[in-house]
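Work Package 3 (structural annotation) set out to generate three-dimensional models for the target panel prioritized at the project kickoff. During this period the team completed the workflow that converts sequence records into discrete structure tokens, so that structures can be stored uniformly alongside our sequence database. As a representative example, we reproduce one entry of 354 residues exactly as it appears in the project archive.
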Amino acid sequence: METIKHSEEMLRTALISNHKDFIDMYQKYTPNVKRFLEEGFKANSILFKPIELQSKSDWILSHPEPKQDFYTYYTNSQRKTPVPGKNIICIQIIGSFGDSETTTNAYIHWLKEYCEAFFFGLEVKFQEPVPVSHTGCKFRINKYSENLQIHTGGILKYLKNSKPKDAFCIVGITMVDLYPQDSWNFVFGQASLTEGMGIFSFARYDDDFYTMNYKGKLKVKQSVASDDYSVFDGYYTPSITSKLLLRSCKTLTHEIGHIFGMQHCQWLQCIMQGSNHLEESDRRPIDLCPICLRKLQCAINFDIKERFKALLRWIEEDSKSDPLVQPMLTSHKPTEAFKNWKEWLLQCLQHLEE
């Protein structure tokens, strides 16, 4: 195992910058917020830990990238931020989610509320779910894993054409596996920063995906006509467990973070770290390091303490007391996998309130 440790000076520069106008900008934070953000400089911090690499296949070792500090992020001419009239995060479900309509509705509601807490101050809207056939995308049967896959290029074209005028971004999510081109085995997702859109799959977050017990393998190995979308009828989708909900929340916020212009984090353990495989993805924390938190705060202009309170409420409360929503929430929100992160949020709030 290798630990990536940066000096306090390097982390301070990454968070604040050496440019006077950026230093002046940072000084506008309250003393409590500055003390909280600078907790990441401490070698023995209980809130923010250095990145640990477990194998040569981990993202940082296999995908060398330049580090993005706050100054680089802020001065990026291609970076997009929400503005009045274009400030809604739209999410489009493609295909089935869960084993029933009731489960799907509850899952959508939980993801919506979580995204509204994470991107605090922005509205999140779910479009009406559409079947795979509605997108007109190509699809195939993976010859190795023997499961159905849909082509990201066709999905992105569909999302571009269906993006509402008031949307900051549109994100497609699906329980069907993805592939970007014929030579690739699979991809977790694909996004376009300039177009403000992305498509991401949760298919491989099923615990059984990489086992012989995976129920998504096609029982009959055969070629399928390119326009025969009936192959998706009754396609297997995993049960909505607490672990799947946690993984979904992490992936969705990570990928939307990219649309905000945040690159993969290489400073501290952070939800914006890249991941090559499920084990590495599971190692990522659920929230942002101080440097990436400042990037998002600057883009949305939220109150950092109020955002943490909203995330904590999402874990503690079963659902909002919305009479239109209550009838479809027949099951309790499965937050058992969020237990450690609840404790972390409480510690963050304690630091901000001292």
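The first helix runs from residue 8 to 16.
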